[in-house]
Amino acid sequence: MFNTIYKKRIAWMVCVTFITLCFGAGAALAQGPVVMRHVAMATEIEILMFGAPDAESEVLREAAREAFVAMDALEARISRFRQDSFTTLMNREAAERPVTVPSDIMELLLAARRYSERTGGAFDVTIGPIMKLWGFYVGSGNHPSPDELREATARVGIEHVAFEPASRTVIFKRPGMHIDFGGIAKGLALDRAAAILRDHGVESARLNVGTSTIVAVGAPPGKSGWTVDIRSPYNNGEDAYIATVDIRNESLSTSSRTERYIEIDGQRYGHIVDPRTGMPTTGILSATAITPNGLESDVLSTAFYVMGLEATRDYCKSYPEVRAILVVETENAPETIFINMNQDSRSKE
Question: Which pairs with CB-CB distance under 8 Å and at least 24 residues apart come from 245-248?
């Protein structure tokens, strides 16, 4: 493994980092590709699959349909936008009484606590009060005062949530807490979908939710992995890409400051907020995390964006199975920095 800084000239207005995937035909093509699409979690989910040479396309389609049903069921249980979801129930009543939640939410809470501890609080699912204060939930707002920020951040912190895995009960230790699984749920949904595909014997598939997270099962026929180009939509042509990587039985997620934003007094504020300070994060243009599963990459792309370069380096040193690509603001031009990447990874010069 080696860590190298690749200097990169890309427009300073780099925005959402889109992900495109390329694959070529092998010497002996398997059945496929079969592509299935579905709308869930406020975005489009796409599953692309290859089957064995003698496999029927309908078998692959049925596997994808079952995966989509599972994702819909998960969304119904955990979406904060649904008034009848367990997340809404928890946010409404857990400060007053113990709330019993399904295993999905307990799994998310346990993972959220684990990654909050690992990232020094850079990732926290209790970010809701800060997001609401800034106006990110409605798309507009006012710059909070220092007192308002202090009040909101006092209601943030997974350590203020008591939960018991055995009984699946949750209690908020402070009133006004609000859990938002937006930075972790899509990764879990893709992991669940990938597991269903594997149960149906699918050994080669690519699943992506919107343009932010990809889960790769195996590799396309004749390839060592799924090739992923990471680019900025504000650039055109060859120089639009900041990097190309291959992933196999891994997940890749990217977070960017202009993925969502609000404007206050003519200034844009990105939706990725540091839970510890209550302030939108600056300094990083985009953060990509490559990890063994979707939940982890979903979490870490956000966490790395908040943590910045040196803390991300330290994290990847402690967890060498995690790779990262950061686009960092500098005085002259943005730099693309590769962490824990091997020589099969390529920068776009």
Answer: 245/290, 245/323, 245/325, 245/341, 245/344, 245/345, 245/346, 246/344, 246/345, 247/214, 247/216, 247/290, 248/216, 248/218, 248/219, 248/224
- The encoded tokens of residue 281 equal 């994060």
Per DSSP, 85 falls in state: S
Which residue in the block uniquely carries the two structure tokens 């009984």?
167
H or E element that contains 45? strand 43-51
Q: In what order do the strands lie in the sheet with 346-347?
A: 18-22, 226-231, 241-247, 346-347
Query: Is residue 207 located within the same domain as residue 230?
Result: no
Assigned domain for 80 exists:
no
Please give the chain's pLDDT, 349 residues, in tens: 333 333 232 222 223 334 444 444 443 445 669 999 999 998 999 999 998 877 788 999 999 999 999 999 999 999 999 999 999 999 999 999 999 999 999 999 999 999 999 999 999 999 999 999 998 888 777 899 999 999 999 999 999 999 999 999 999 999 999 999 999 999 999 999 999 999 999 999 999 998 789 999 999 999 999 999 887 634 545 557 788 999 999 999 999 865 667 788 777 878 899 999 999 998 888 899 999 999 999 999 999 999 999 999 999 999 999 999 999 888 777 888 999 997 555 545 4
Among 193, 214, 235, the domain boundary falls at: 214
Its pTM stands at 0.88
Number of domain units in the chain: 3
CATH number of the domain where residue 153 is located? 1.10.3980.10
Give residue 306's domain range.
1-19+223-349
Mark out the alpha helices in the chain (DSSP H runs): 57-78, 86-93, 103-118, 128-134, 146-153, 185-199, 294-307, 309-318
- Alpha-carbon Rg for the chain, nearest whole angstrom, is 20
Q: Based on the fold, state whether residues 71 and 191 are members of the same structural domain.
A: yes
Is residue 1 assigned to a domain? Answer: yes
Shared domain for 59 and 119, answered yes or no, is no
Pair 276, 343 in one domain: yes
Report helix, strand or coil for 164. Answer: strand
